[in-house]
Amino acid sequence: xxxxxxxxxxxxxxxxxxxxxxxxxxxxxxxxxxxxxxxxxxxxxxxxxxxxxxxxxxxxxxxxxxxxxxxxxxxxxxxxxxxxxxxxxxxxxxxxxxxxxxxxxxxxxxxxxxxxxxxxxxxxxxxxxxxxxxxxxxxxxxxxxxxxxxxxxxxxxxxxxxxxxxxxxxxxxxxxxxxxxxxxxxxxxxxxxxxxxxxxxxxxxxxxxxxxxxxxxxxx
Length: 220
Prior knowledge:
Number of helices: 6
Shape: rod-shaped
Helix content: 55-70%
Number of strands: 0
Mean pLDDT: 78
Largest sheet: none
């Protein structure tokens, strides 16, 4: 069984693991409104820190979707070679920082693709990770004009899924409450019935005692 060889960092395709969050707005993609954040992350209502965290989560989601879109388009050969290298470099800059800071081996002499990708990464210099994230989405939207619409559709789908999930949880909560009220009502009725039967038994015993007492008096 052959051992899988690890690729150098500049040869690895961009992953879809969660990106580090940033509040930097994207110029190409609209910054989410307060209503949009609230609809996607209902827990953001309340303190400003919660709202800021939810806005960052939404930005993180956008970047994850951008990586998914890029992976799909590059697999289909719809991303030009130079742009592909630039986008991969930006994704690596975001995940690992500048190329000189990353632990990576030099590409082979005949590894033209590896050399081009590393050169694109080195060209970014000390670009901050937040700027790399922003430029990744901007460059992707410039190359694929259908990306913003695709992203908006995915966000709407997520919003609808989470809305349906909230409705389902609310429906289940109401059903549990209704079942609990019904159970408590059954217990209450059972207790009332036991109390009624106990009272009836005592009345019968008292009547029997009085009848026996009357019979004794008549015999005397």
